[in-house]
Amino acid sequence: MNTKVVLKHAKALIHIAYVLIVNAKMLMHNTIMLTRNTIVLMQNTIVLTRNTIMLTKNTIVLTQNRRTLRSFHYPSPTMRDALRVRIGSLLVALLVAQSIGAGDRAESVVKYRQSVMKAMAAHMTAISMIARQEIANDRQLAAHAEAIHGLSVGLGEFFPAGTDATKVKSAARPEIWGQPAEFKAAGAKLESESAKLLQLAQQRVTASNAAPNLHARLVSQVDAVGAACKACHKTFRKSDTE
Question: How far is CA 84 from CA 61, 72, 90, 135, 210, in A?
Answer without folding.
Answer: 15, 13, 10, 65, 73
